[in-house]
Amino acid sequence: MPEWLILNLLVIKLIGMSTSNMTEMVCLLVLCISWILFYRFANSYWLYIVPWGLYKAVTYVKETYRNPVIILAENGMDQPGNATLPEVLQDTTRVNYFKSYITNLKRAMDDGATVIGYFAWSLLDNFEWRLGYTARFGIVYVDFKNSKRFPKNSAYWFKKILQRKSN
């Protein structure tokens, strides 16, 4: 069993189910259909916004691997890469994303998971390996023409919660 585990959590998906119980199968099917109808996407087609999935993933690791120390090394969502100033700085969806994911992480910790670190993906807009400049994950907007940087509302939100914790 690992003593510690580092997780990168960007996507939660149901990748399969196995059951021979008909009632359980119907319940899982209803759950899957309702999940498909009501989940939201970030900018990327593959990035679902499923905050309760963080709780489930961390709790699963806690229960399956005898509660190792967990560091969540990557968690975030993107905006369209063609978003421009000043609108791109009003990233309300990202603020709500982080609020809901961190709330679910706190819930897992309250239920006994040993989490010692959380890192938002990402600090700066950057060149994404598969998406290039078509997606912006940063809490700080980078103008790729001149490298100027502008904090988004999500950066100010993180600053506020970090200051509150340190006071």
From TrEMBL:
The keyword Transmembrane applies. Keywords: Membrane, Transmembrane, Transmembrane helix. The chain crosses the membrane at residues 20-39. One of its GO terms (biological process) is carbohydrate metabolic process. Pfam families: Glyco_hydro_1 (PF00232). One of its GO terms (molecular function) is beta-glucosidase activity. It comes from the Eukaryota. Belongs to the glycosyl hydrolase 1 family. This is Beta-glucosidase. It comes from Zingiber officinale.
